């Protein structure tokens, strides 16, 4: 998909938002689905199989969102930790439901081999509104750093802190959608008072590795597994995916810690960010969830081999 060049309806072009523009933007957001129905109901169903911990609560207006994570039961201190995160961007649906499907269908396959720590829906307010930001117009996935302005990011950092040095693997589950170009990148440009430069949405799954620790064999093992479930995004005419050079089949790299991305919250040896494309005519919602599960399993299999 190639984006439209229509001006964003909030703010003045070239002028960064102030409090009034943020309030105008917030007033446009509408609740479209239920965190309680879609996520918390599954949390309750899975309680007998895992240790479920509430690692925080987000209070936004008259809504309260408890944040839950799952831990292997029993937790074995002599085993490495694998961190799985989803829903950092609440609108990226298969990140949430892929993490929950992994817990329901495949997590027990790794019992006694690794301690799993799974946070399936980091941004529940945004999940309900099918949005990228939190209500303060902050992107949690640029906010994983000390003194984070995003409650979603700060809560996850606190959850992970006790396991510093034990995390072998972190896989962060995301999507790239057509709305990245129709809504979210134009909103970002408007918020920051910058010109919007249209981009191109790749058709297919890809991975974002860490340019500081790229682990190409690991990334390709995940790609190979996912390719059995859904198609892999090709490079564009410039040899890029979303503006970054393709460094291997379906793989680009970002400096994850420098950018404050979720994939940089640990010093894990193996890290990757999945990017499913749910708007492809060649993919169904279930296929997107299955691709996320395949990626998690392939990442675990490689890291534990």
TrEMBL record:
Pfam families: AstE_AspA_cat
Keywords noted in UniProt: Hydrolase, Metal-binding, Zinc
A molecular-function term among this protein's GO annotations: metallocarboxypeptidase activity
Requisite cofactors: Zn(2+)
CDD domains with a match to the protein in the record: M14_REP34-like
Domain Peptidase M14, first and last residues per copy: 31-305
One GO BP annotation of this record: proteolysis
Family, similarity comment: Belongs to the peptidase M14 family.
Protein name: Peptidase
